[in-house]
Amino acid sequence: MACKLDSNQKSQWFSWIYINVNFEVQPSIGHHVLVGKDRLTYEISYGPEIKLLDHTHLKTYKLKLP
């Protein structure tokens, strides 16, 4: 799983912080059979409050069944 921190913003007038984080994940069946690739974008704010902002399906892999 890859993780990229997109932005870290803080307001000087208010005491709050929010961070947007993108995760690229590869769901699997078992330990080694990858079935696709997705990107999840979360907003994490002071409190803490965590919101899923976006879920993008990037790719589907064909399964090789025995």
From TrEMBL:
InterPro entries: DUF3888. Pfam families: DUF3888. This is DUF3888 domain-containing protein. The lineage of its organism: Bacteria, Bacillati, Bacillota, Bacilli, Bacillales.
